[in-house]
Design brief:
Blueprint: H1 3-12, H2 18-47, H3 57-104, H4 109-114, H5 117-159, H6 161-170, H7 172-208, H8 210-215, H9 219-271, H10 277-318, E1 340-347, E2 356-363, E3 368-373, H11 379-386, E4 394-399, E5 402-403, H12 409-414, E6 416-419, E7 428-429, H13 430-434, H14 443-452, H15 456-460, E8 469-470, H16 479-493, E9 497-501, H17 509-523, E10 527-531, E11 543-548, E12 551-556, H18 558-564, H19 567-574
Parallel strand pairs: 3-10, 3-11, 6-9, 9-10
Antiparallel strand pairs: 1-2, 1-4, 4-5, 7-8, 11-12
Helix pairs in contact: 2-3, 2-5, 2-10, 3-5, 3-10, 5-6, 5-7, 5-10, 6-9, 7-9, 7-10, 9-10, 14-16, 18-19
């Protein structure tokens, strides 16, 4: 997309705020007109001072009073214009950021998984701020600059047409220089934004996993990676700054030439008697004010290149292909009966890299299904397909008699309760985290869920109990305690089916035994899928599915699989080998 297309699209987000735009333009005209009228008053005041003893103090005082009033009015109008332009810029960026964030809620998980999270954060936060800065400077200086240019031409033409034409004739040089430099600065600002996103990703990755960084002695390598990215950011930043900073001096030079020409020609004209001293002073003031907007606009162009580069990165999120929408006739799954059938399903995350092929599985309502196998065999992928985090490439998954492709995603997912190995908590109170999936839950329900998850005892020991604030991702409690809260969160909703992916991996053996009893109670009458590495926890499963390389190679009850002395038996016995 060309820069003009980017700019048009960026400005399209200002349409809902055109009223502020109109007021900003009105106040800009008022401010500029009053500012341009000030030199007229100054010139007339100068003309009242003919010589020593020949000063008209009465008229001089009147002009000075008017000058003070005009200056105050111009300042007030400029302040009001600033309020309006601030509103436009930040409301526009708010809308863009909200649209980008809304799109992130509607893209396939593949988009989130395939892009560095730090880079996505940088786009939504940092790049949005760059757009705000560019728009703020653009609206503020562009409005006043354009009105000033045309206003000064009109005022100068009233005083002397020939000198005015001279000024206008030399002006295009300034615009040519600014445009020449702006085209070259855009690519550097684009690289700068991308490198800034790369740095944000590295910082987020390092800070978020500092324990691992220190445990594996990766500090030096992390510092080297940071220095390398930082060096590239410095290089592209210096180049972007160099080109953008050239704009102002170059246009100032052209404007200096204009002012010099006006001074020479104006002085000769005054000497010939065609201009008074006051008019010459007024004309020189206008010449200075006329050239000033070109310097400001050149700065706007440079800042706008940075804003456009950032907008391009944000628009890439907004333009990301959304997840396949629910079909128009999609069924809202009510109370699921718990039956699940996987029929000849094939799926791979990366094309040409096979993972699951021809998978078949029949689960009756209320059964407890354990999924085991070596790392990378497709256990968690099967969970992702059941929840429609990803859609199958071939085959179909039937839940409660409905193909999941014909069910609304929300109703399907609300039928499952999920506890993952990777715990996640939001910044908020313990109570809010337990009620994450059921915000309207009563305190009694929340406490009951915590008691069932054996989390109530440690919660009561926290400084404020259930009202204790949990930091982002539960940084102020232990990993096991986070796991207990996640289990309580699932117990609160009590859906028709459960998905437990290594749900007790971070819990001590004693607590795990109690949690298993709680799970047994919760799983009564509910279809449950349990991904487990500790095979001792799944011996009571109704069906154990053994996967390898995306295929089901064995299935049956614990005793049956041990009797076969196959893959499962070897895997089970290896966990108890001395």
């Amino acid at each position: 997309m060309k820069n003009t297309g980017l700019l048009k699209r960026l400005l399209s987000f200002t349409r809902p705020h055109l009223l502020y735009l109109a007021f900003a333009l009105v106040f800009a005209v008022i401010s500029v007109c009053l500012t341009l009228y000030a030199p007229v008053l100054t010139g007339r005041a100068i003309d009242q001072i003919v010589g020593r003893g020949h000063v008209d103090f009465i008229m001089l005082k009147q002009f000075l009073i008017w000058l003070a009033a005009v200056t105050a009015g111009a300042s007030f109008a400029q302040w009001l214009m600033g309020l309006c332009t601030n509103k436009i810029a930040y409301l526009t960026v708010r809308d863009i950021r909200e649209k980008a964030f809304a799109k992130l809620q509607n893209v396939p998980l593949k988009f989130i998984d395939s892009n560095p999270h730090g880079d996505i954060l940088s786009r939504v936060i940092v790049d949005a701020e760059q757009i705000a800065d560019g728009l703020l400077m653009g609206f503020t200086q562009l409005f006043t600059g354009i009105v000033t240019i045309f206003g000064t031409i009109g005022f100068m033409a009233v005083i002397n047409v020939k000198i005015t034409l001279l000024v206008v004739f030399v002006t295009p040089l300034s615009l040519f220089v600014a445009n020449f430099i702006a085209k070259r600065s855009f690519k550097f600002f684009k690289v700068q934004s991308e490198t800034r996103g790369e740095m944000t990703s590295l910082i987020e990755e390092t800070i978020g996993n500092m324990k691992l960084v220190k445990a594996f002695g990766y500090e030096h390598e992390a510092s080297q990676r940071f220095e390398e990215i930082n060096a590239r950011l410095k290089d592209c930043g210096v180049k972007a700054l160099f080109f953008s900073s050239m704009t102002n001096p170059c246009t100032r030079f052209v404007n200096g030439v204009v002012y010099t020409l006006v001074s020479i020609v104006g002085a000769l004209t005054a000497a010939a008697g065609a201009l008074t001293v006051g008019q010459l002073s007024c004309f020189l003031s206008y010449a200075n004010q006329y050239t000033k907007p070109f310097n400001e606009i050149s700065g706007v162009i440079a800042e706008l290149q940075s804003a456009l580069a950032s907008a391009k990165r944000l628009f890439e999120i907004i333009d990301a292909t959304p997840q396949t929408p629910d079909s128009a006739d999609a069924v809202v799954l009510g109370k699921a009966d718990g039956s699940v059938n996987v029929e000849n399903v094939s799926f791979s995350y990366v094309q040409d890299v096979k993972l699951i092929e021809g998978l078949n599985l029949s689960v009756q309502a209320g059964q407890k299904i354990a999924i085991v196998g070596s790392t990378g065999c497709g256990k968690t992928t099967l969970i992702n397909l059941l929840m429609r985090f990803y859609d199958v490439d071939k085959g179909k998954i039937i839940v409660s008699g409905h193909d999941v492709q014909n069910l609304t995603r929300d109703s399907l997912r609300s039928s499952f309760g999920m506890v993952l190995q990777d715990t996640w908590l939001k910044a908020g109170t313990v109570k809010e985290n337990i009620a994450y999936g059921k915000p309207n839950a009563s305190d009694y329900e929340i406490v009951s869920a915590a008691v069932a998850a054996h989390a109530d005892s440690f919660i009561k020991r926290l400084p404020k109990g259930y009202d204790t604030e949990i930091t982002e991702d539960g940084g102020n409690i232990s990993q096991g305690q986070k796991q207990l809260l996640c289990i309580a969160r699932a117990m609160l909703s009590l859906p028709s089916m459960l998905l437990l992916d290594e749900a007790t991996s971070s819990i001590d053996t004693r607590t795990e035994a109690r949690i298993q009893k709680a799970f047994d109670t919760m799983m009564q009458g509910r279809t449950s899928f349990i991904v487990a590495h500790r095979l001792s926890t799944i011996r009571q499963a109704d069906l154990i599915v053994v996967m390898d390389s995306g295929h089901i190679i064995e299935q049956g009850r614990h005793e049956e699989l041990l009797a076969k002395k196959g893959f499962y038996a070897n895997l089970y016995n290896s966990q108890f080998a001395v």
